Amino acid sequence: MKTFRIGGVHPSDNKLTAHCPITQAPLPSQAVVLLSQHIGAPAQCIVEKGDQVKVGTLLARANGFVSANIHSPVSGTISKIDNVADASGYNKAAIYINVEGDVWEESIIRNDELIRECQLDSQAIINKIDEMGIVGIGGATFPTKVKLMPPRDMTAEVLIINAVECEPYLTNDHALMLAKPDEILVGISILMKAIHVERAYIGIEVNKPDAIELLQQKVQSYTGIEVVPLQCRYPQGGEKQLIDAILRRQVASGALPISTGAVVQNVATAHAVYEAVQKNKPLIERIVTVTGEQLSQPGNYLSRIGTPISQLIETAGGLPEHTGKIVLGGPMMGRATANIDTPTSKGTSGLLILPEEQSHRHEPSPCIRCAKCVSACPMGLEPYLLSRAVAVDNLEIAEEHHIYDCIECGCCSYSCPAHRPLLDYIRLGKGKVMNIIRNRSTEKKQ
What we know:
Elements: E1 22-24, E2 30-34, E3 44-45, E4 52-53, E5 58-61, E6 70-71, E7 76-85, E8 91-99, H1 122-131, H2 144-147, E9 158-162, H3 172-179, H4 181-195, E10 200-205, H5 209-218, E11 225-230, H6 239-247, E12 262-266, H7 267-279, E13 285-291, E14 299-304, H8 309-315, E15 323-328, E16 335-336, E17 350-355, H9 372-376, H10 383-391, H11 395-400, H12 411-415, H13 422-445
Helix pairs in contact: 1-4, 4-7, 10-13
């Protein structure tokens, strides 16, 4: 069975909500909409305190090529434009909306009728995706329009849909595939049209047999789309690992994934593209997996963007006693939040509630030179060497050994028997090295 060829680990799936259907989360009394919920420049606010907005009203315009429009997820009155503490505790600009009813923009088509035929040409599709603020919903939140417009010297040959969902606990993509298979497939066809390709592959790990079976049945009536079952292996949802698993092509160090001829989009992004292009619906809500072994009502909740995570936790039964940590995302790549009132964003895939006994790291001990971190690294790096170089502030060594290729998957720390904080050091050093590289590039241009 297909999988990527370098490194990887297989943590316990813990898909506690795998059989939970999508449930509509209640509207918040106040939505807090971040102006920076995508990779790139924060959007530029175009509303003022006191303005009335509907669901789908444009709140902020993309501020550059790598940026995305922000639309209102609720209807009501702008109460203020101020800062809010994000999941990491840093203050970020946001728009506060007092919710009054649930009135949608008239241009949005809200019925469930499938609109299969897309009448737009490639550029019009990309323009619509741009207008509707679509970004990668898998977690990276890269503006979708940018991926659909590769550099002039590179050509897309194939579309790959990431339906792997290899991160433990998360099941929002799984639930979406079971509920909206045709909408996803129309979205894939639209993406294929946008980048002028005739082939698309949907990669799904075999721990989702019901989704594989359903989509294999559905693709029979679509041209050029194939479902590819994949071996369960983390981090197979990584862009470079998924390309290797399906196409047997590896992205060279420092190169873009499009250099292999592949454009990769998340399965939920394909669904959002369908809604944007065929229904004129901006990205104003998403499915969030709220999970944890002690939660009384874990599930996959369709939630308006800007909903406080504390409200989603209450919807899932409330915060359990002896909770030690709340993680935004999954346990491998997610980040513990310092603030339960932080709002959800376009990239909020899950909330993982961990009990106190699972919330503390083991005490690290000296490296035993076992090289398990090297074997586990899906990018073929030497994590022990990179972490040591950063610890002694030898950034030249870190750069020479390609620290910038790290995808921050956490396989190294997960596999380390000495419980070394390898990824912590590497993440710190990667940021410093990338800054050095950017400054060097700027100096050359001057």
